[in-house]
Amino acid sequence: MTTDSSTNGPNNKDKTLGDALRSQGVSRRSFLKFCAATASMMALSPAMIPKIAEALEKARKPSVIWLSFQECTGCTESLTRSHAPTIENLIFDSISLDYHHTLQAAAGHGAEAARIAAMEENYGNYLLVVDGSIPLDNPGYSTIAGISNYDMLMEAAKGAAAIIAVGTCATYGGIPHANPNPTGAVSVGDLIKDKPIVNVPGCPPIPVVITGVLTHFLTFGTLPELDHIGRPMAFYGQSIHDRCYRRPFYDKGLFAETFDDEGARKGWCLYKLGCKGPTTYNACATTKWNNGTSFPIESGHPCLGCSEPDFWDGGGFYKSISIPTQDITKTVVYTAAGAVAAGVVIGALNKAKKSKMASSHKKMTIDDLGK
Amino acid sequence: MTHTNSAAAQFNIQIGDNLTWNVRPLLHEVKHALDNLINTGETAIIDLRSIPLAPGEEDKILNTLGRGEVQSQLNALGPSEIFETEYAGVWIVTHYNEDDEIIGRFIEITTMPAILCSQNEDVIAAYNRLSENLEDNRETNESVVEKLS
Predict the structure, then answer these.
(1) Is the CB of residue A249 less than 8 Å from the CB of residue A241?
(2) Is A28's CB within 8 Å of B122's CB?
């Protein structure tokens, strides 16, 4: 992975992926193997392998600028800790990662200068990757080199060909956005309306989904087909529930009631233990984690629904989705009033929760997690 | 090298019979693809990662198909294992990365998986390389002959 812009001379960037691979002594047979793994990774039909080979052969290195805002670096960890070095490296060898403040060698003014230089040199053509949400209440909550997240995003977005929002924080606000949203966190899509945005949610997203979107751009020069909330259909087109190997137990009405009962031991459906699989769209059930080893449900834990907006406020990870998320009578009163002024009411509901939490200022215990 | 992928044994996951009911339909798909290969010569590839399978079900498919007369191993960006099953024309192609982790597993219905064939680009590169080597050797030999004379 190239993180130092000084090593990317114009000649290096003009090289096609095919040229780069051949100069590294990668045979055509190895390249075909890479394309087969790529097709599988992008959930494309194996019949597409020759087309992927033809397109990747001619692909040129795009400049990528990666901005990290209110986040935990879990998304970057997910990507860089994935244990498929050869294939992932080939993808990353084929982009020019010009700015990523966690990964790059440069720091301080040098790092910011690299970002500015990459933006100017590739104006209108670079890919902007963002992880983390953007605080609007007070710009001082999160800054980089003294620049607020909002200002940096708006400046970098201007010259971007497209934006890839990585992780649930960048896509839908994520954990910073959870009630009572103390920093006024918003997503990239809340602020940018005039650029194509691909949402790659997940807390964190599956690494191959991140590289899959980059590879799709490299392969076809376009962004993938998206669903109604901006997610690539190839990875988020089907619910966890529909692709879950425990689905037949759901259909038969066989459920684990606790984590140590007979149903849990027999691998029955985790719906009653709070599984959000039926309302969650992601590729975990087929792509799986740790290079295809397993996914949470396979390890006996319900899906948390981390690729869905507001998953943190879903009413409890261990409460079945058939149970209402909050006191229905209270919500109904607010909703009736909300028919007149919905925005004001939602604000009031959040404000009440916010001030209640601030005044009591309690630390959360493990028992609270189940409430 | 023998690669096994028995997640069920490793993690003590309970395996029920017919968990997803995907094993038999998939084997029927293989049968239909084989029929197609016989009658039209058309090949087919099935990506095992695209189908929901419970722990142990992939092993069930592989055990049903068994191992036939041909086994081969590639060493291209990590190992790959390619073998013909007991059913001629049905091949299992498994690609690993350099850490021996599976990055793709396919059932190919064909007389010869394409990745086993020498690729045109590699053949051309091989011709050029061999020609250069022979040219180098000729120059070296000539200089030796000159010295001797």
Answers:
(1) no
(2) yes
